[in-house]
Structure formats: structure tokens, C-alpha cells
# Entry
Amino acid sequence: MRKLTAISLFSGCGGFDFGAAQAGIEFLWANDIDPVAGSAYRSIFPDVDFHVGDVCDVRSFPKADVLIGCYPCTGFSLGARRRWKDRAERDLTAIKGNFLYLEFLRVLAQSTPKYFFVENVRGMISAKQGWFFEQQLQGFRDSGYTVHHKLLYAPDYGLPQSRQRVFLVGIRNDIARDFSYQFLTPTHGPGRAHPYQTLRDAIGDMPLWPTGEFLDQKFHGHYLTRNRKRGWDEQSFTIVANASHVPLHPQGSPMTFVEKDKWQLNGDANRRLSWRECARLQGLPDRIAPSGSLLDCYRVVGNAVPPPFGKALLTPVIRFENT
Ligand SMILES: C[S@@+](CC[C@H](N)C(=O)[O-])C[C@H]1O[C@@H](n2cnc3c(N)ncnc32)[C@H](O)[C@@H]1O
# Structure
């Protein structure tokens, strides 16, 4: 099988890259500004040349077949939009996001990969009435790429977490003449090859009270404005980077609805998922070992793009390259 090489920007702990590697991609170089993400990346990929630092300060990038760059888009997530207090704060966040997307274009121009992959939060498509998303698409087209995009639902690809993300796939125009990229057909769910995976499948074998591995802190008012507990036979709520917002472990009694924006905890078996359980629910390998505080571990794990997305997105490319 022909191996494709890749470089990875904003690589975090290497979630997307781990899935892409499972599909057959060989990583040469990766970069992130966060040293804890770097330590986690190295625990998954000890042989990849990982550079810790601001991408804006990197002057030259290796050539590779594939460029992966899930630039941060927290400013466009629905949660962040709810948190925006005023217009100035919102605009500042948008400018920062725009800036990092321009960095991605700079690397694209230098590395000229055959394929590139980007992940965005769902809110990115509608932010500023779609203007920002269209800016990105135009930037990629002007760089000589045909771009496809789709909103994907993680359980459809075997992840026990109801996470939705938008993915952009760029195919260099000389390759796109012979290759029309099609997103992989979902593999899991009713009527498909495999059933949806559940919380039980992912974390049923782990200790119920892993002392020191979960944030044992009061549940603040905002936390109790919605249901935070899914049952063992369901998919987890979305795993997030902020430890205090992480969903509850499925053990014990479910939460009950009181009134609009008010939910109640029941019984005494109520704790947040541990960072290791979050890692499982993100599809990360158990060998992941971030060196940092408990909150650092939650952050790098919650920031990850789940590997099943990486595998599903790279599979059509690997198939094309090997036909
Ligand atoms: C969505 S996370 C990436 C997830 C990762 N791609 C994965 O597959 O698991 C975005 C990452 O961008 C990094 N980042 C933010 N600003 C950066 C910068 N200026 N230079 C390099 N990395 C940056 C953050 O530290 C964070 O790890």
C-alpha cells in the first residue's frame, strides 16, 4: 500500500492524526502552541517531530502529501456565542480566528499538499451570516484547491458521543480532475453494519470512583440549567475542554427536569466524567499521557478532534491513492 506523508498544524494531543494514521497516513511534523498538548502528542506519536510554539513564528514547513490543520474556532461555538457579552469581545474573537485561518493559508501555499483537512465547529457555518465560512472557502479556492464540506455526527462513525463537527476537505486542482471526493458512508447506527456505541461500551470497564482523575467541585448554577447525565446505553453528551462543564458519569439516578433552565440532581452518585473517561469517549488511546495538572488533562483531551473522524475522512483518499 502506498503511504502518504502528512504535517499537522494546531495538532493538539493528536486526535485527528491518530485516526488518520489508522487509515494509513505517516506523520512527519506537528505543531501546537500548548506544551501540555505537545506532551500528550508525544505520548501517542513518539517518533513524530513535534514543535511547540506559535505557528505564526514558524518560518518554514516540510513538504507533505497531506496538510491537517484544525485551527481553533472556539469563538464560533454555540457556547462561546452565548458567552459573548458585548460586540467588542465578539469581534476580537473573530479577528483572532481569522488570523489563524490566514496562517493555514500561508502553510498551504508553502507546502502545496495534494490534500488538506480542516475541522470547524457547527457555528462557524452561520457565524456572521455565513460570511466568515465563505471567506475560508474562497481562500482555499484561490490557493488552487477544490473544497468539499459536510457536517458529520460522531456516533455514525463509531464514537459513543453525540458530537457534531463540520469538516472541510481540500483536493489540489490537478488531483481533483480525476478524483471526486465523497465523504465515507456512515458505518454505525440503525440499519448499518454496526450498532451505535454506548457509554457502557466505552467506559463500562473503568473504576466507578477514580480518585484524583475527576474534578470534584460544586456544580454551579449554569451547570444545572440543563441535563448533564446520559444513561449507560446512550451516547455521551459532547466532551468539552473546560473541566467544570464536563458531563456527568452515567452511574446512579438520572437528573430530572424542574422548569425551563432548571434541572435537578438525584441521589448521591453524581460526579463529572474523569479525564481518562473523557479520553475514551473521544476515541483516544489509553496510552495518552499529558504532563500537566488535572485541568490541563481535561483541556487537551476535550480539545481533541476524535480519531474516528480522522480515519473516516482519510479513508476515501487512501482508497483513491491505491486504485
Ligand atoms: C481544536 S484544537 C486542535 C485539536 C487537534 N487538531 C486534534 O486533532 O486533536 C486547536 C489547537 O490549536 C492550538 N493553537 C491555538 N493557537 C495556536 C497558535 N497560535 N499556534 C499554534 N497552535 C495554536 C491550541 O493549543 C489547540 O491545541
Observations:
- The two ends are 10 Å apart (CA to CA).
- The first strand starts at residue 4 and ends at 9.
